[in-house]
């Protein structure tokens, strides 16, 4: 297992629970905690310098997100990614995100488009710098701006439940071809929105998930040596 980030880099957001949740989620998404890793409350608490309570709360949330499996004997392990659950996850994420995107597009303003441009630039810059957590966050925000414009908070709640798992899958399958699907797709989608071609933009956004699913199916799960 890769060494965890230095504890001195662990900065506290408003609550300890949120701090622990963000930290463990990031470690799972980036592969610092690979699939199958056993998580013990006391060990995680000692490493992060917090009490056991926020650790337990964070692990419960991550289990709800599908990032951690809790066995009948209460042992906790980072979830394994199989071809079946990976493709199912992409399908669910596509349905939710594309619905929110389509509903949000009619409500977009020039300010929304400017914010999307900023997040796209940050996405590309962080990819070039090798900062995958920051790149993933910027990429997710690109879509979130549009989904929130739909005004459907319930939909955003459901998107949030699967987005971390999707980011983990992207990180697991990360390669130039995988990332290029999102970079090109986002760029062309935004250009269509800026050209006042909303229907074409929605269609291009949907195509991102089609292309990504095909790549994950053929690249992430192909036999070694192929």
Poorly predicted regions: 1-12
Helix percent band: 55-70%
> Span from first to last CA?
25 Å
Give Rg in angstroms: 18 Å
Estimate the global geometry from the Cα principal axes: globular
Share of residues in strands: under 5%
The count of helical stretches stands at: 9
Number of domains: 2
- Oligomeric form of this entry? single chain
| Known CATH architecture of the largest domain | Up-down Bundle
Layout of helices and strands, plus pairs?
Blueprint: H1 16-29, E1 38-39, H2 41-48, H3 52-64, E2 68-70, E3 76-78, H4 83-104, H5 110-129, H6 132-149, H7 153-172, H8 176-194, H9 198-220
Antiparallel strand pairs: 1-3, 2-3
Protein name: Transcriptional regulator, GntR family
InterPro entries: GntR_C (IPR011711), TF_FadR/GntR_C (IPR008920), Tscrpt_reg_HTH_GntR (IPR000524), WH-like_DNA-bd_sf (IPR036388), WH_DNA-bd_sf (IPR036390)
Organism: Geodermatophilus ruber
Q: How would you characterize this protein structure?
A:
InterPro entries: GntR_C, TF_FadR/GntR_C, Tscrpt_reg_HTH_GntR, WH-like_DNA-bd_sf, WH_DNA-bd_sf. GO terms for molecular function: DNA binding; DNA-binding transcription factor activity. Residues 14-81 form the HTH gntR-type domain. By secondary structure, this protein is mainly α. It folds into 2 domains: 7-78, Orthogonal Bundle (Arc Repressor Mutant, subunit A); 83-220, Up-down Bundle (Four Helix Bundle (Hemerythrin (Met), subunit A)), CATH 1.20.120. Helices cover 69% and strands 4% of the residues. The chain has helices spanning 16-29, 41-48, 52-64, 83-104, 110-129, 132-149, 153-172, 176-194, 198-220; strands at 38-39, 68-70, 76-78. It has a 3-stranded antiparallel β-sheet. Strand 2 and strand 3 (76-78) form a beta hairpin. Helix 1 crosses helix 3 (52-64) and helix 4 crosses helix 6. The two termini are 25 Å apart. The model is unreliable at 1-12 (pLDDT under 50).
């Amino acid at each position: 297992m890769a060494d965890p980030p230095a504890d001195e880099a662990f900065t506290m957001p408003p609550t300890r629970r949120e701090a622990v949740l963000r930290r463990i989620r990031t470690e799972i998404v980036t592969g610092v905690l690979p699939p199958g890793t056993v998580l013990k409350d006391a060990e995680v608490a000692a490493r992060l310098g917090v009490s056991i309570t926020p650790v337990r709360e964070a692990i419960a949330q991550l289990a709800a997100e599908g990032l951690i499996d809790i066995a009948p004997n209460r042992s906790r392990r980072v979830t394994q990614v199989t071809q079946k659950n990976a493709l199912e996850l992409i399908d669910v994420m596509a349905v939710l995100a594309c619905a929110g995107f389509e509903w949000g597009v009619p409500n977009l303003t020039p300010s929304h488009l400017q914010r999307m441009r900023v997040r796209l630039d940050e996405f590309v810059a962080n990819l070039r710098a090798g900062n995958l957590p920051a790149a993933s966050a910027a990429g997710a925000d690109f879509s979130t701006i549009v989904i929130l414009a739909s005004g459907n908070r319930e939909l955003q709640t459901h998107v949030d439940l699967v987005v971390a798992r999707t980011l983990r899958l992207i990180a697991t399958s990360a390669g130039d071809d995988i990332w290029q699907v999102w970079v090109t797709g986002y760029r062309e989608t935004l250009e269509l929105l800026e050209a006042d071609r909303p229907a074409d933009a929605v269609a291009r956004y949907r195509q991102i998930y089609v292309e990504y699913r095909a790549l994950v199916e053929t690249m992430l799960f192909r036999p070694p040596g192929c």
